[in-house]
Amino acid sequence: MEELTQSTQKIFILGGQSNMSGRGGVIKDSPNNQKLWDRVVPLECQPHPNILRLLAELKWEPAAEQIHADIDKKKVCGVGPGMSFANAVRERITGVVGLVPCAVGGTAIKEWARGEELYENMVKRAKESVKGGGEIKGLLWFQGESDTSTQIDADAYQENMEKLIDNVREDLGLPYLPIIQVALASGLDDNYMEKVREAQLKINLPNVICVDAKGLDLKEDHLHLTTESQVKLGNMLADAYLKHFAASH
């Protein structure tokens, strides 16, 4: 595994909440009414020797679904966009793709402020990821559903997100770190969801782009993306990275 660590060239941080950590294929088990993952792994999300993930204990291993299982531990994880993203990028670039899962379900943007546990853990994991070689190539960010329940949270979203971007870049010493955020596909309140979406789509900072998830199919809970939608989102994120950033990286 040490050899794989040394050869990890292109590292991506995965941040946000449940639609980044993945609920695709998470179903309710009827007999005991508990949630479980159906273990269906689409072709686009299959493991590959050139895709690694950083474990919670800060060691690299070959990546396979569920890649957030030891990070987003309080909920059942399923398929997210990470593996389809990594496979799509891997097919177009040379070297190993390293994924650094950091997303935790049900978290609001204020919980990702500098000094908060989630933020500090993300920065710690990101710094650890490059110690064996390689370079952080981007932050993939899908979050905001938990900020759609009140006017105050929705109104503050753009400022809080821009601050997060500034802080991550400063703390990692990467002032032009590419950041691809996802505009929401769902929310707790439709009116406030549109306000957060507006903020996400309006952010205009260097090397920050937005991929719009609106219209992707949702599960019966009307909040989480289906497995198929997560595959599509991963491909959308990969297309955005390859179009806007890969040539300069």
Automatic annotation (TrEMBL):
Organism whose genome encodes this protein: Dovyalis caffra
Pfam family, one: SASA
PANTHER family assigned: 9-O-ACETYL-N-ACETYLNEURAMINIC ACID DEACETYLASE-RELATED (PTHR31988:SF19), ESTERASE, PUTATIVE (DUF303)-RELATED (PTHR31988)
Domain of life: Eukaryota
Molecular-function annotations in GO: hydrolase activity
Domain Sialate O-acetylesterase per the UniProt entry, residue ranges: 9-243
Keywords: Hydrolase
Coiled coil: none
Cross-referenced InterPro entries: Carb_Esterase_6, SASA, SGNH_hydro_sf
The protein's name: Sialate O-acetylesterase domain-containing protein
